[in-house]
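Re: the 436-residue chain
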Amino acid sequence: MSKARVPWKAVIGGSIGNMVEWYDWFVYSSFAVYFAASFFPEGNDTAKLLNTAAIFAVGFFMRPLGGWLLGRYADRRGRKAALTLTVTLMSASALLIAIAPTYEAVGYFGALVLVVARLLQGLSVGGEYAASATYLTEATPRGRRGFASSFQYVSMTAGQLVGLGLQIILQNTMSTEALHSYGWRIPFIVGAAAAAVVFYLRRNLLETEAYDEEERESAQSRGTIKALLAHKKEALLVIALTMGGTVAYYTYTTYLTKYLSNSAGLPKETATLVSFCALFIFMCLQPLAGGLSDRIGRRPLLITFGIGSMLGTVPLMTALGGVQGFGGGLVLSLIGLVIVTGYTSINAVVKAELFPTNVRALGVALPYAIANALFGGTAEYVALWFKDSGIESGFFWYVSGCAAVSLIVYLTMRETRDVALSRTEQAMQESVPTRV
């Protein structure tokens, strides 16, 4: 592996904002079991969760718009500017949820406020993923890009862990009644405040060399749909390779706590602790897998994920539905997350390596957001729909089918590990023999 130095300031700056973005995105799902009754009338508990899951999915359907607008913004105004804007939008949406009025006070108007907040979150995250992926990839020298870009999912998972950790603290320091009444608002207030700190940190980031080179060219086609259409094959590739990964990721992260609680019958506190411990180990695995991809390439990891997810989801989820305690739940959850690591650790860098600089952010953002709207955002809703229909195992086969489609793509796509991302990098690459 290359001994080029990892630019830690850029990695930390790009990642810490991503952590706050995904903390805010994740706590909506993890705290839904507490605030669902606040925005909908009395009724079946699963029906209330279906309503909040539907609003969760609404945020995903804004992600293509966010991917287009903020991806274009990142290609035309810079990665740093886009990163600053996305965290500002996320802070505003978290604050909206924190102050949203309940059904008892204003009827369905409170649910409408939730929808607006989720629309803002979707807009923000639709651009954040691409801006972060592009920045981390471009700011790192060839030979360390897999390792550095893996911190995107380190930061995403850290955001989830902070949310889960706060949930554990609140569960052990507040009564169940208090959590359902007002305690669920606390994590959203924390998220809004943290975003203000990240805004300051991101203002001090340096722009990437690849973008500075492109900016000097003053190309009018930067970040346009016309420029993206010149790379239709790559855009479709992003959608297809994301399909299986995003469904599996949300199955073993955001949906897992609900599944262990509603289906396996574990106490909420135990289900939350299982998710926390599994996600912490999962987070630590990301740089290891990202570094491995710098040595052996991206495709072997993606193929391993595709095979594991296609063949392992049904038996794993079936077994998880029958766990009796913390130990069994943790082991089975970890098996699923180890498989998912083959996708999460490198999916950002693979997508960034597929496109040229003038359309890289948009090329990553829009196709990825479309795939997430169609598959990732609906995963939880589809799972709850199968459960409500009495055929919960149907969801496991759905996840396996999505993984099978992506596996075909992994087997046929080109390797991207050694692609040059800037003219300077390309010149250096041409002066050194290509690695076999």
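The two ends are 12 Å apart (CA to CA).
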